[in-house]
Each structure stands twice: as C-alpha cells, then as structure tokens.
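FAQ: What does a multi-protein file look like?

Like this. Sequence, then tokens, then the next protein.
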Amino acid sequence: MRILVVNAGSSSLKLAVLDGRNLDEATTLHVEGGRFDTDAIAEFVDAARSVDAVGHRIVHGGTHFSGPTLVDSRVRRQLEALIDLAPLHQPKSLAALDAVSHLLPDVPAVGCFDTAFHVTISPAAATYALPAEWRQRWPLRRFGFHGLSHAYVARRTPDLLDGPTEGLRIVSCHLGAGASVTAIADGRSVDTTMGFTPLEGLVMATRSGSVDPGLVLWLEEHAGMPAAELAATLEHRSGLLGLAGTGDLKSILDAEAAGDQDAALAVEVYLHRLRAAIASMTASMNGLDVLVFTGGVGQHAGPIRERAAARLRFLGVDVDPERNHAAEPDSDIGRPDAPVRAFVIQAREDLQIAAEVEQVMP
C-alpha cells in the first residue's frame, strides 16, 4: 500500500510517501516555519504518482476520536469544532486536509490523532480537580498530545534493547518547538505533561507551558488584558521566545556560552521543567527502565540531554558524555553499567501514521 503521510505541525509541514514500510526518498516535502504553500503541495502530490490512502496528523481528537478514523464531511465538522483547543495546530491540520482532499478527491483520507495514544491514561492523571457540574457539562480533562511520536517510541524502544521488555517502563521526551514528556508502561501511555490543550506542561519555543491560573486571572482583572491577548501571548510570545528573545534553542545555547544572562536563565528554566517532568512521569510508573529523547531538540541538542540527565542520577539515569556527543538516532547514550538505559530515537510520526492508516483500510 502506498500511503501519503501529511504531518502539519506548529512549526513545519511535512509530506512523504511510504511504499509499504519504506520511505520513498524521491517523494518528500518539508516546509519549515509552518508556511502553507498550496502550489508546493499540488506539485508534490502530482509528482507522488498514485497513492492508495492519505494519512493526516490531526492534533486534537477531543472525546470523539480514540483511534484512526476515515474522514468524511461529518468528521471534518467535528474536527473544526476543536480549533479553539489547539489554535496553533488544528487550523493547519485542517488546511492540509482540505488541500490534499481537493487534489485527491477519490483517495480515502484517514485522520490519525495525537490525542489517541493517551486515552489509556488513568482517571487520576486525566482528571482536573474542578466541580462535577463543570466536568459533566464540558469535556474538561487532560487529553495529552504528541501521541503519534510517543506511540512510535513505545514501538521502537523494545527493538533497541538486548534484554526482556515485559513490563517495560519508558519515559519519552518529545522535545521540539512543542514539547511533552510521557510515561509509557507496557506500551501504553499512563501519564503525560500536556493537558486539555497543548499549552500545558514544559517550556516550549513560543508557548509558556504551565503557569498558575491565578496569574492569568490577575492579568485579566488587574491589568485589563483581554482574553484574546492573553491567549495570543501564552501561545505565540512566551516560552523560550519570551525568556530569551528567540524560540531557537541552538541560538540560545550559543548565546549562553557567550555570556548572555537572559539566555542562561532561559536554558535553566527549560531544564528545570524538563527534569521535574521526567521525575514526575517516573513516579507515575513506580520506576524507570528507559529514558528516550526524540523530536528535533531531543535528537540534536546533546547539551540539553546531558544537562537534563546530570541531575537525574538518583533515578538511575547516567548519560555517557562521549556517546551523547557522537549520538545519531537511533542510539544508546547511557553508560553501560547505568541502571536505566538512555536512547536517542528519531521521531518517525510518518511510520506511526502509516501503520494506523493500515489499521482502518480494507
């Protein structure tokens, strides 16, 4: 089966054709900055020749979608209703869905959801301590995101181990423009850092991550800040950008090395949240067997991996500096005698999407 995979993220648009389980290197398109180029998409689809199905990464599936789903007009309307819950992602996913469906009207389109992998998290992890009448009236729960990436980590990690994998406890760190950490036990998500929206959790490129809701209420009441401005600031002008003036972590690390104090603070805040999240996810599983770094930052920022792990030795994590410096996905970066294994794994949401498309296609 030839599957066109469409991955519209917050900071990039990626299209690829997988023939069976192999990536057709001649047919890939990667647009940085999340720029939506209809002409480039049309040219790519035309060059890709015939495909049997299209798999779309959809960030938010709400309570309706717990697995891959064939997209029809009814499903399309349900996905549009979720835009407010993922304003950085859902519009781009739907724009890509519409563009490709227009070009390939007779090819089945399958929605693959970032929230679906997290339907297995426990009620304790999913529930906000809010009044029952609120929770019954609205779907006010933690959904979790980056599920396609974390699901691939759950599948790929056992392949890299040379020992038994039964009962395996993995903490998966997807670090990119968006970032989240997930606890995976026996191949299933049991806890994660993102919540009702992709804004909760870690410090990200432009997103604040978790902040005290009282702070937001204070700004609204005492500073007279409109809700729309609050939302735009937390989504687009916070995170690393708000701390250091740029969302590019490589540039921030360079500035830190040159003595920039804002950059140094940004890195420390980023690492503080990341370490706390890893420890929290470990507690959710009552232990840790494997720590995995994936995503653009997780794969390429060796200093972040090493500095995050340096204060996690109490969990059994011990990254080898030489292995870490030379690491290319997929590789082991831990010391051979460390109680917890540590890996860098390439993010392959495309393979996960293709596998999910195959689940629903006859």
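And here is the next protein:
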Amino acid sequence: MISYYGYADGSGEYFVIVDSDKCEGCGRCVERCPGGVLAVESVFIDLEDKSVAVVREECCNKLGYLCAVCRSKGELPCVLSCLNGAIRCVFEVC
C-alpha cells in the first residue's frame, strides 16, 4: 500500500510517500530525519498489524517547512537511509 503524506497549495506540492510493502519498520529513516517528521507506527494493513514508517500527524501540513533544510542541501537523509526504497519525497515549488 502506498501512503501519501503532505499537501499541495499555491506555493507547490510537498509529499512524503511511503510504500508499506517495501517498508520493514526498521526506523533508520526516523533516526536520520533532522526535522523529527517521521515515526514508526503499527498500522493495520492487509488484515494484519505491521510496523511501518509514517509522517507524524502534526507534521503533515508543515512538510514544506520541516523538510526545507534537507531539500536545500540536495540530500534527503530519510530517502538515502532506506535500503528498500520505501520512502520517496516530492517537493515541487511553483
């Protein structure tokens, strides 16, 4: 299951995308995220509970700001730390 966290507004699109089929819930992305955006939570998927990376609810509408530091460096530590490629980020500024 693919989950999209974030928003689109007049300034652009800001989304963190997590593929729960690829996510092992290891937490490497959580450790590497300097903005504290990510967490590992138990989510009910395909009739079972599975630990996966999620964007913390209070961060969903702030990704444009919280992820700005990493975006400006051209590196996204959460994406680079995921060995399975379960996390992608879309940050398109208008």
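Q: Is there any per-entry metadata?
A: Some entries carry free-text notes. For the entry above: The longest helix spans residues 68-73.
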